[in-house]
Amino acid sequence: MLKRRERLVLFGLAALVAGALVYIPALGLGPASTKVPDDEVQISNLLPVVSENAVVDHHVRPDEITVAFSPGDAERTVLQAIDSARRSIEVAAYSFTSRPVASALLRARDRGVRVRIVADRSQRTARYTSVRFLANKGIEVRINSRYSIMHNKFMVIDNKAVETGSFNYTRSAQIRNAENVIVIDDAPQVAAAYRHEWDRLWREAQALQSAQ
User: Fold this and answer.
1) Are the CB atoms for 82 and 169 separated by under 8 Å?
2) Quick one: 74 exposed, middle or buried, by C-beta within 10 A (0-12, 13-18, 19+)?
3) Which CATH number fits domain 62-207: 3.40.50.720, 3.10.580.10, 3.30.870.10, 2.40.50.140?
4) Using one digit for the tens of pLDDT, what is the confidence trace for 59-94?
5) Could you list the active site residues?
6) CA-based R_g, the chain, Å
């Protein structure tokens, strides 16, 4: 059995050896050293720092991801995502004037899906907006005025799928612009992250009353 003093000495020696193994390569004195030219950027320096609270899902398979573009099938992909809903759809929308998307959300509501929308403040006074139409049809709509623009365009579907991308829910996005849509299905962790953000935006927002 080592005495306390002997254990402390051994511990100190181990710490010195470990420190040397780290310090010597850093000085370029050992075989593990690799000199990086000053004009090169290490890839590790470009990677984002992920907080301990971040949600990272490593279980999304390629066949659970659908991508689409406009010109092309972007709008159709959004409509298919809405039509797949069975329980809930949470929408965050910057600009929303698309009649097909509004109609699909109404169909979802009519088959028992809970539909809620949080929209940018521009949609309160826009001349042509689907959020007012949907509010008048009894769908819950709130307006978020906290930011210069609430620029999100995403849907959380049944708390397990996410539709997002650059595609605003507008006719222009489908026929005039170059846009993208991505649908990630069967990914509850990804959906939980988007739902958490949607809940925050919803809490900040004020109800859009239906027209009397």
Assistant:
1) no
2) buried
3) 3.30.870.10
4) 567 669 999 999 999 999 999 999 999 999 999 999
5) 151, 153, 158
6) 26
- Write the DSSP string, 116-183: EEEEETHHHH-SS-HHHHHHHTT-EEEEE-SSS----EEEEETTTEEEEES--BSHHHHHTS-EEEEE
Lookup result for tokens 């988007």: 194
Structure tokens at 33: 């050293």
Rounded Cα distance between 14 and 3, Å, is 17
Boundaries of every domain in the chain: 4-45, 62-207
The type of residue at 82 is I
Query: Which residues in 151-188 are b (16+ Cβ under 10 Å) and which e?
Result: ebbbbbbbebbbbbbebbbbbebbeeeebebbbbbebe
The DSSP symbol for 66 reads: E
Closest CA to 98 of 153, 178, 158, 142: 153
Question: What global pTM score does this model have?
Answer: 0.71
Strand partners, 92: 118, 154
pLDDT tens for each residue of 154-187: 999 999 999 999 999 999 999 999 999 999 999 9
